[in-house]
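EI: anyone free to look at a 164-residue chain?
SC: sure, send it
EI:
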Amino acid sequence: MTEELDEEVLDSLAELDKLYTVFDGASQEDVAYAKVFWSSLSLQPPIESRLVSADIRQRLRAAKTPHSTHATTNKASLSKRDDEIQQDVYLNQKQEERQKYIEMAKKREQIIALLKKQRDERIKKEMISDQNKTRNGNLVDKRLASKPLSSSVDEEKKEVQKLQ
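SC: here you go
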């Protein structure tokens, strides 16, 4: 009887394999690998269909048991110390930040002073250069005046002088 049941089970399994796994044109080795692969997979149901999930909170937390008053006084003194420490740290950070801004302002003033000095030097050099240009320009004018010029050249010279 057990042999008959085993044969029936094997026949039904063979029929199921025929219905659900079809590998046309594949070698027997590929078919065997594919069957092993697909039989090893088990898909998890979507999170919505699970009754219990780790990432969904199932119930509210239990109420905490009241501690002794000594523990609360210790917590209060610790929280005061923590507040004082945090306040000191905050004040130190503010002071460092203020110092950094003061240093930046000093550096900015130094840069502005340097730029002003360079500008004054440049203006001084330009003034000296302008004085030499006008002297040289007068010498050129004197040289041109000594030579006889045609009337068109004289007119051009007057127009150039008007532009200056």
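EI: The chain has a mean pLDDT of 76.
SC: 👍
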